[in-house]
Amino acid sequence: MNYRALGHTSLQLSEISFGTWTIGGDWGNTDDIEALRALQAAMDAGVNFFDTADVYGMGHSEELLAKATQGKEHKIHIATKFCRSGDILNPATYSETSIRHYLEGSLRRLKRDYVDIYQIHCPPMFILKDGSVFEVLEKLMDEGKIRYYGVSVETVEEGIYTIEHSNAKALQVIFNLFRQKPIESLFPLAKQKGVGILARLPLASGLLTGKFTPEHRFSENDHRNFNEHGEKFNVGETFAGLGFVKGVELAEQVRWIAENRGNMTRAALRWILDFDAVTCAIPGFRTTAQVEDNLKSLEVPSFSKEEHQRLGEFYRIQVQPWIRGAY
């Protein structure tokens, strides 16, 4: 396993780490026993970081992480998030009283005394500009209840504002072959300011695995069914803002990335790790086999300068015009 510093912090995180939305809920049926096996397989391979949120299965993914990491609390780092179990447009959701309530709930479910990274979960821009939420997080750092704080953002603009107006040490962004916008301005600024980048949705909700056909249908309890067009939350969180059929079509156009890299999954993750501004990619998983396959991305060749240029042009011409929502 390779490790990278989370910006200007003491944390060294595994290049491939994992998000736990998929084992918490909203991705179809889940199997807790298999999820725990997969978490153990990841840790056995050297993974030392997992990302979660209090709304993933209404706390269920945090509870699974507590079981999997019992006795390893000082070796396995956890980031969780808050605010989306409340009204994200209500300033009261970001009051000190509310944040302490959210944090205590997460600590109880995680069975930990502190959280390594506490993240605001995709708040609106006016909350970031108000700034009082950052004052509360600074206080929680001083009290030792969180080591660092960060923001999970929907847009590059939100990310830049966070870096320039807070002491956030982690920025979680949607970044994959279909969402390359952060490369131009956000990544250089993050490197300059010592802010670590956590790349979420690295496989664009599975599109970049190359396993889907346009005829595929997702189960009713899978957000790829009920949020394809942003019906429940930000459209960018599902298929990186692309419609499913268009996404499948675009994935076919980059199937060549798998040449000499095993498969599209490994290639898509390797592409992300080619950017040194990225601390780690955090793909989701539901099975041990998925964990093992994702980790094989560490063994495949990086992309050449020419390949990066080809993929950048593909994004600008073929993908960008089809992305919906602010990003």
From TrEMBL:
One example of the protein's molecular function in GO is:
oxidoreductase activity
Q: Which GO terms describe its cellular component?
A: cytosol
Keyword Transmembrane appears in the UniProt entry = no
User: SUPFAM superfamilies in the record, alphabetically?
Assistant: NAD(P)-linked oxidoreductase
Indicate yes or no for the key word Oxidoreductase: yes
Keyword vocabulary terms for this entry: Oxidoreductase
* Pfam families tied to this protein: Aldo_ket_red
Gene3D superfamilies per the UniProt record, alphabetical: NADP-dependent oxidoreductase domain
Residues in domain NADP-dependent oxidoreductase? 15-314
**InterPro entries linked:** AKR, AKR_Detox_Biosynth, NAD(P)_OxRdtase_dom_sf, NADP_OxRdtase_dom
Q: Which PANTHER family does the annotation name? A: NAD(P)-LINKED OXIDOREDUCTASE SUPERFAMILY PROTEIN, NADH-SPECIFIC METHYLGLYOXAL REDUCTASE-RELATED
- Indicate what this protein is called per its UniProt record: Predicted oxidoreductase
